[in-house]
Amino acid sequence: MNTAKTTFTFPYALNNRNITQFIRDISNVKSDVLFVKDNRSARAKSLLGLFSLCCHQGDTIEVVCLSRDSDAESDLQEVISVLKNI
Length: 86
What we know:
Blueprint: E1 2-9, H1 16-25, E2 32-37, E3 40-43, H2 47-53, E4 60-67, H3 72-84
């Protein structure tokens, strides 16, 4: 299993609009993507999961990509790129 992880600090708060856009933009990522904040995790493609993390401007999360079939590192870079451009 391929694993890649990094940290990301939000320049904005997650809300319904940008979570929905984020999920739509990473729909082609084949890896399982997890956000980890304060020892809690949520799948990045789960609207309710992301809401449950309560990510505010300035919060730092760990982004983890787990993959069996694709390159986790390239998927991680795509996820970070989408997060930066929301």
